[in-house]
Specification:
The protein has about 375 residues and is α/β, with parallel strands linked by helices. It has 13 helices and 15 strands. The N and C termini lie far apart (about 45 Å). It binds nicotinamide-adenine-dinucleotide.
């Protein structure tokens, strides 16, 4: 069995946690670091064998967008023992992947988490009460309550002896003070501290990241933390209030064309900027991050670095749809931070890879999928929207 020092992981994760947000600057910080990690320097990272095709993979939030696509991704890779879990009734799941065991259970309850994790070799925790800006600004308590999911899931995975545990964090964990300008500097991993996360949702993610870090430091379970930046693509939420900007823009334009009323209302002044990651990049990134021992307990950006304004996003959807909309702006609507982008220096260094599907390409696929869903719903068929 190959063993090696895991000191660099501790250092990396400590960088995320220094109050100054800078790595190892002051004497004081160095002393604290030594106190915290002196005993742990002896810890080694045991190399586990590659995941076997029949090993149990558990995915929570499996009825949702990313969880469903992740189950599909692993199934296509030939894994035969996948358990997807969601509290939604089965008919509301976005994807039913053949050959995957689907369980309807609420993983904010500890007993259910134990049941879900029994026998798991790897656990991917993607369950959360979440949505686009309209949802997370309006329902902060629901967002905060996802702490129950993450608290019980990480413990149940540990008790079950899972080898690897993945947690889906978010760019909303970053300090909001750094995101006040649409021409924003891309966010690097250390920008989460000093902490001033997005109210509700962001703080919950930050706290749950810490659980993951401590389950490694104190108990030795290999945990992995990706900070997603806006994910979009087929089988995602596209209506109902939880949808994110790309899906919302596609639906609004599809609806406008259908109703022959080419007007669109945009939240904010449309100058706020974001980057959007296509779902295929997201699931690939989750897999790569979770199987990289140098990233244990180390938060890492998983996002596209292609920054666009919401106005540009609308123009792109207009081009795909072949229409020109009359735009109006709702300045009182929720719009989140002024600008946010993903700095991909760290992921490129660690994985030699970054999410790179061009927005134009991913949007065209997503538009077509939403159009299909819209038409199916209009024809009276049951479709998952959120
Ligand atoms: N989509 C994004 O752009 C984005 C960005 C940053 C972070 N994330 C994170 O990625 C994860 C997946 O997001 P998504 O876009 O697939 O969202 P989603 O809403 O489509 O999926 C989440 C699923 O979790 C389920 N769920 C909620 N509470 C549950 C509970 N108590 N027990 C069991 N299931 C429960 C929901 O029913 C839903 O199906 C979440 O943790 C989210 O915070 C997503």
């Amino acid at each position: 069995m190959e063993e090696r020092e895991s000191c660099c992981n501790f250092k990396n994760s400590f960088k995320m946690r220094t109050l100054s947000g800078r790595p190892f600057l002051g004497m004081m910080e160095r002393r604290v670091w030594r106190q915290i990690f002196m005993t742990e320097k002896k810890r080694v990272v045991e190399k586990d064998g590659p995941l076997k095709k029949g090993d149990l993979i558990v995915i929570t939030g499996g009825g949702g967008f990313i969880g469903g696509n992740l189950a599909l991704y692993f199934r296509k890779k030939g894994f035969t023992n996948i358990r997807a879990v969601d509290k939604k009734p089965l008919y509301e799941w976005y994807l039913h992947v053949p050959g995957v065991q689907n369980l309807c259970l609420d993983v904010s309850e500890a007993d259910n988490c134990r049941r879900v994790c029994a026998g798991a070799v790897e656990v991917y925790n993607l369950a959360a009460d979440m949505g686009g800006m309209g949802f997370i600004e309006r329902f902060r308590i629901e967002c905060l309550r996802s702490i129950l999911i993450n608290t019980h899931m990480v413990e149940a995975a540990y008790e079950a002896g899972a080898r690897r545990y993945f947690f889906s964090s978010s760019a909303c964990a970053y300090n909001t003070q750094l995101q006040k300008d649409p021409n924003v500097r891309a966010l690097k991993e250390s920008d989460a501290y000093p902490a001033m996360a997005e109210r509700g949702y962001g703080w919950e993610k930050l706290m749950s990241e810490m659980f993951c870090q401590e389950y490694w430091h104190e108990r030795g379970m290999k945990t992995f933390i990706a900070r997603f930046h806006n994910v979009y693509g087929p089988h995602g939420t596209w209506d109902g209030g939880r949808e994110k900007a790309p899906a919302a823009m596609c639906r609004k334009i599809i609806e406008a064309i259908d109703k022959k009323d080419l007007r669109i209302n945009i939240w904010g002044n449309g100058e706020q900027t974001r980057s959007f990651m296509y779902i295929d990049d997201c699931v690939k990134g989750i897999d790569r991050i979770t199987h990289c021992d140098d990233l244990i307990a180390t938060p890492i950006n998983l996002g596209s670095s292609e920054l666009v304004s919401i106005n540009t996003l609308v123009s792109k959807v207009e081009k795909i749809a072949g229409v020109k909309m009359k735009r109006s702006y709702d300045l009182s609507a929720p719009q989140g931070v002024a600008g946010r982008n993903s700095d991909n220096t760290f992921i490129k260094k660690m994985l030699g890879w970054e999410p790179a599907t061009p927005l134009d390409k991913g949007l065209a696929i997503t538009y077509k999928w939403i159009q299909g869903q819209y038409e199916a719903r209009k024809a009276g068929k049951r479709v998952g929207i959120g």
